[in-house]
Structures
1.
Amino acid sequence: MSASSSAACRPGSCLPRAFLWFAAAALGLSAWARAEVCNIKVVTDANPDYSDIGSMIHSITSNWPETKDKCWAIWYWNHIARRQTAPMILHGLELTDPIRQFNDYGYTMCSTVAGVNCGIWGAMGLDVKFWDISMHTVPEVFYDGRYHMYDSSLSAIYTLCDGKTVAGVQDIGAAGACEASGGKSEPGHIARYHCLNATSPNGFLTGADTARSMMDEYRCFNPNGLKYRTYLNNWDLGHRYILNLRDGEVYTRYYHRLDAGPERKAEGGPQEFHSDPAYFVPNEGKDPEAANPRYRIRGNGVRVWALTAEGLAANAYIMAGARAGPGGVVPRRAALPGGVTFKVEGANVITSMKIKATVHLATESDLAGISVSTTDGEVWKEVWRNAKTNRSPTEIELREEVNGAYEVLVRVDLVGDAAAADARLEAISFETTTMLNSKTQPGLRLGKNTIYVGAGEQTESKVLWPELQADRYRPYVVEAKNIKTAAQHPGYQAVMYADKPGEEAYVVFKLDCPRDITRVTYGGRLYNRGPHAHIDFLHSFDGGKTWKRSYSLSDTTQPWDVIHYEKVEGIPAGTRSVLLKYLWNADVAGRDSCGLYAVRMEANYLPPCRPRLPAAAPQPLEVTFTWKERQADDSLVTRSHTQLVETLPATYTIDVGGVDHPIVHSLKVNLKGAAPTAKYGYSDGKDPGGEKFHDRWATYGKNLAEGKPYTCSVPSRTNWGAGDPQGKILTDGVVGSPYVGGGAYQFGALWQQGDKPVVTVDLGKVERCAAFRIQTGGWPFWDALRGEVKDKVEVLTSTDGKQYTSQGFFDFRLRWKDIPANFAWPDEETLCGPNYLLVAAAPVEARYVRFDITPARFLSVSEVQVLDLVRFEPFDLRIALPDGKDRSDITEYLPKHTLAGK
């Protein structure tokens, strides 16, 4: 395809011929000073920094000295950052770039997050493996002389029999024996007895998406179903979070979806899910949230930028044939087109946009139009044309035209027929809605939180991430040769490849910037397999007259999804355009030989009125957190805090009160003065004080009740498969699923309101009892984290079976702050079937332990336990705040291209 063949809808082609912009026309850039801060970063010590892969790795791992601890920390935060649901498909591929996934989406299945993990570990310099197993996919990482499996899909880690060494894929389903199985050798020994995130041996996973038993897990890791995908790691890297704010611009991220309303329940049917297409990027044509609304992943951002007449020229991205005139922007000459282009950015992915413009046209022969482009100006779409003269306010709502983009160019075209000033843009504003992952936004916790606000290099960015499948790359390229693309991305091979064997194939992309380019970073995910195949990166700063090769991949060994990026610096002053060429050749043609999975290109350029090496101090920022504090009676009190940040970087603290971790509502960031109602400090003027919250690590001792006999005053009911015909199910050592309903009842006994059963366990001898546990569920599905559970269970102990002493009641009202760091909670963030704990005021001597149960519903109990030990130790998740080093350079975090285990 030639350069001209993709220009059918280039600038001006949707307007009358008089509106055409001539490519050679000089750009009329404003010399006015403009307030702007680039690459803003707001991070707290409550969760990781997801700005870029380097920052993420630093924040999660740098305070952990050993690789095994670093990998556990990655696994911990990945459990929070995503949910097991229909994976986000973009450009025909499941999204495995960690930064794009964790900032904007969070929708993953097993293969998706396995690829995400491979990308993170690869960026840490570690070797990885990607495994398909029986109806499941998991990754492995190499350290301390062996491979280790971390399942971030079902939130599970398994150890060898030593209880310390994280097991590998081939260990988990293999036959084995140890003290945990009574010396009995069984298939899937590790899966059954040594999962760190199970309710018990032979129990259920605690942090999964549904009831998943350890027997199910053994079947997944059955040695006969293991398939190591030597040729694929399913990884991707390259995205970074870019937040640049200009004068008058306000960006508010809401930690919930803004199109949520009261969900209606169809009569006699399931609850309906409703959403607005203006608030999401569709996944296979649907709202990705619809597949699993219970997870509440999606949030939305609103970015508002309002420009009055005085600020139009100063904030223009490009002015061509136009100037700042009285009351706004006008063409330079009568009867000739002139216009102004604005660059509207999302930071998070854009879902829709509203444009309000005030245009003055004096006569019917004067013209005005508005067009948008998401292809860096290669293709434009007209979205408005004037229909009347005089002062004409207009409102435009865009969705399909901008959905999925991170930056949009908005061009206002003007023609004053008799006099240039007869056509005038007087004001314009943009309200941009974005989609975000609510689980990964800067967080707050109970007590003292440290907030970091900083800014990276003061350069703006132009990014291209074109879709390649089904020839959708064409609007982005200026030249192409011998190119063929798959109609649908195959997922494990190149999607763009040579049409004719043995002939050179290439695509050329162009990045135009309004000011001097300081750096170019380009690359992507490559497929190089065929005989004598190679893939080259080339760039040109003189319009293609000369090319410089910056990289050549000739290695054809596995794996065949290679991630590589090149950074180009030392660019001559005055350079504002760059051509980027991806060139390849192989002895055979076809997508199974050589080509591209995906590409990403970024050019950094100077902001307005800055020296070539920007050193000017950024403008003051206002940062506002709003949250809801939970009170003892479960009511919520809304509070907020606004900080004026006058120098960067800066840190400050926010103290959060209440009885539990807060519900964070929103984070707003803007340059000083953009939000005129800003009140600094706490909204209520009160600082509740408090120390930094520290998590705890729980250690549970031996279960003295396992296998012991018991009596029950009321027989179990048999609804939904429940029952206890042999009188053994409550002490069989198998703790039931944290998910209730369905098949969960068959693992325990069941009673209903009014039954009042008393279960008395005989330990066989007097034992030292430190704590007691009971796993309950039932119908309705009450959530202990919401204070819904009305059942009561009292524990009484006796040495002789005659005189009993109360040890208290189980507290069925649980708090997030009390959940140990080593407990992986269910994906849906409810505790409807937890294993409740009652710690004795002091260890008590007892042979008989009685559980006096008062159901307030259909109440299921799978297990009662008596522990000889429970220990809680302070635990620090060790989040590292930014240290001033810029880690956004992807070329410093490229995975090694080696075949694991070769």
2.
Amino acid sequence: MKKISLFIALITCALAIFAQSNFNEDGIRLYHTPSQEELDWAKSKGYDTIRMTPTSPPSGQIRPIAEWEPAEAVLIRYPLGFPVSFVQKLAEYIKVITVVTQSNLSAAQSSYTSGGVNMSNCEFLIANSNSYWTRDYGPWFMAIDNSRVSMFDFTYNRPRPQDNLVNGILASHLSMVNDYTYFVSPLDLTGGNYMNDGIKQAASSTVTLTENSWWGNEQQIRDHFHDYLGIEQYHFREDPVSTSSSYLQHIDCWAKFLGPDKILVDSVAPSNATYYPKFEAVANYFRSQISSYGTPFKVYRVFAPGAPSSSPLTPYTNSLILNNKVFVPTGGNTYDAAALQVYQQAMPGYTIVPVAQLASEPWLNTDALHCRTHEIADQCMLYVKHQPKSGEIANTGVVNFTAEIYSYCNNTIYPDSVIVYLKENGGAYQPYNMENTGGNTWEVNITGLPAGVVAYYIFAADASGRRECHPYIGGADPHRFTLTGDAPKLPAISLDKTNSSVTSEGNEVVKDYITISNIGEASLTFDVADIDFDKMLTIEPATGTVQAGDSQILTLSYDFKTLAKNKEFSGTFNLKSNDPLKPVISISLSASLIEVPVLSLDKTTSSVTSTGHEVMEDQITISNLGKADLTFEIIDLNFDKMLTVSPLNGIIGADSTQILTLSYDFSNVEKGDYLGSFKLLSNDPNHAETEISLFAYQTYNGISAPNMSAIYIYPNPATKSINIYFNNNNPAKAYIYNILGVQLQEKALANGTTAVDIKELPSGIYFIKIENCVYKFVKQ
């Protein structure tokens, strides 16, 4: 907040209840340039020595905010210095903040209402004030670290204590009262004698130096503006009308920045021998200076013959730029039309609005619209930072556009909204989406542009609804440059993938492949570089050339043979090429050695035959061929209670085995055949479930039948295959017939179990003939 030594104690009352607009608290009439009466009064009160208590300068990257940048409001004061009709125009599209005393509030509201002002767009700042020159005592604004808008306050270079207090009250109204949004300078300053380009330059008349000689020399003052406002180049010029202390010496009376590379300067007739050389010297000075865009300033001239005098009325540089409108004070004479035309020429795309004077408070050549208004910077502005291209640029086939996009209130920037709009040789604008390349930086490369003039602007939008361009007005007044020469043919790289990931379950070489395609019109050369990975990896070929329309396969070989257990690797390599749009592509790499169990069984069928009442055993060997523990479990045992299996579960170490014992107890079973199965579950990912087929046959006790054949067919029904158990050393054949008696298959049988593939057979009933016996089975 403002801190003013002795100010509050000295100001005991506010007596600004006068028909006219500008009086101090003791009723002395105030003029834009202080009268001797006011100066004597201020000295008698001690006001001439009272100054603001300064704060330390802000820290971080500082940028001055220009008049034409996004504004959230305009600051005026009531009683007004212009017609209510002008307030009505403002409130149509922007918030109007009016400084008014409590006693005048009702009158202000009544005046606005009767004048058709949109009251929903009006706010009233209750504060005492001496004058309506809000430009002179109002705040300056700067951005810090491109993340927040801050206020710059100062000692008003007029002995007007009420005016001097307004900024502190306004800071509270705008919630800019903390130590990182409100900063106070010790210097004596006035806003009418200050303009900046929104980047790093500013200009004032030399009265800023003379009025602050008590504080420091010119270099110290320049350093001060750099520290508080980020101004790197300050143009101090002598006022072309007069450098007398009795003259106003405000730069807005004869010059005005219209953009970062544009300045408007008054001109007078060559016949005016006294002032013509001075105005021309100012214009020529700025023509010789380089703007923050890196190009010479574009100097526009407006004929203002009244500039060095009181008549005619030509206060044209004392205009207000407010977002996309320019309000120009007009004098009601023959020079107005030409002045408005100059603005339209210099600022295409802006709406140029003439503003007539208030009869009771007329314009002066040293006091008009700019002096009586002040824009309030948008605290949540969307800021597009870009260094424009200009002049002649050799056509390499690729044009790069880079910008930084900032939301000062951290609103989300829509990724698909950041666009370069570009037109070639007077054609239509074409959009090119920019990509975020990290942080606040956005970039796009455009290829194939023809020789000639290129016009462009950058657009962005955020979640708050803000939509901004660079330059501010967008396509109506774009940046321009000239490409010289035809665009060469270029290669264009395309990859089927930008990562390689492999796994291995053992000591082996695993290969992966990346396909490089050239979709351009010229030969593509590439080079594998900067490999950051274990020595297990080799990439071939390491370099190469791919003709237009062709492709090349990169082979990545990962050798796991010498790795320790449970190894994981990650890394990258760069694929460099002569594609100007993608000169370097980073490829991510990962490799993992996964140790798993591997199940192996010596057989998947158990078959026994008994000729007596006894216990017969069969065995199945489970082997673990992998490098991790194998777990197993027996489930779904579907067989007669005569069978036991042991063990039913277990763990088998790497490279180890486990024997399953199947015990068939024929002690209490009848003669006949027994069929069934069980499932063997394991943690081998490739053999999670294995079905084991079971068969047992009980013959007549004590009867030897060496010439009899025991034949069993299982499973039945079946889906993919059937097993034929043939207990005879003599060879035989099995014939499969369908229900119509047509032979479909023939299979030789040997002693033991023979598998027969039936998966190609349609579902239905079939017959098998073996040794003059016929058996039925069902195919599901």
3.
Amino acid sequence: MESVHFIEWCLENLNYWTVTLLMAIESSFIPFPSEVVIPPAAYKAAAGELNVFLVVFFGTVGALIGAYFNYILAYYLGRPIIYKFVNTRFGHMCLLDENKVHKAEDYFLKNGAISTFVGRMIPAIRQLISIPAGLAKMNFKQFTFYTVLGALLWNTILAVVGYSLHSVVPKDQLMQKVQEYSKEISNGMIILGILLVLYFIYKGFAKPKNGVKAE
């Protein structure tokens, strides 16, 4: 209960540090939607209380910190311990279960490194995609690059939504509108992710073999 009050306090007192902290929580295995952090912070930026570019920057830094947490745990603890953890009472309190982690791992194995980028924008996968990356011992620099890229794009989109709503939506209706738009954005990101995966598959098949140029 105290953790709930803490998060409520952070949301009521949004600044660059609370944005970083909440986005780090959101990006770890603890369930907490980024949609209730970045859009309200961008909304405040439109009112002149914050800088929208710094909101995106610190939101991305927080997302990277949370992703590192999952990655390092999975990298060093290994698959058996991770799966054992998600089946504990605490794991269930964090809304984790074996099926969700398996789904994220399967997604990662099917799509490779690009899934770390695309997965950052897909609901139910976004918070967990760092775990299979750690289990697969993905290159750290590559993991960082794709995580920052995906988080930056997602946070930018959410910031644009929050910033643009300032002039047309009263503050008490903000979260309702954000939830409506976030569903549409998430669906759009899923489509974009599928297109990107198909593109990389196409590039893989189209790549000339043995240094012979395609006619």
